[in-house]
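Tutorial, part two.
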Amino acid sequence: MTNKVISLAFLVFVVYNFLNMRGLKGEIGALTDKNTELSGNLANTKSELVQAQADLETVKTDLVTAQQENEKRKAEVDRLKSQLKED
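Running the prediction step on this input gives:
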């Protein structure tokens, strides 16, 4: 009788572990797919960040150029004003 109870308990244990492992394998597969998707999104985001940084550097360069041009024009206006006062 004891052997039958032990055998039945062992059988329940094996079935429980089989079902539990099957569920865990499914969860691992889902998490692996999610990880792959997130890795792809991260790569895209990094690429967009690099592009945005390059665009920012271009805008900074354009701003410096515009400021230099503005200074030149202000100097020209001042020169013309002083020339006008002299005349």
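The chain has a mean pLDDT of 94. In part three we will examine how such features are distributed along the chain.
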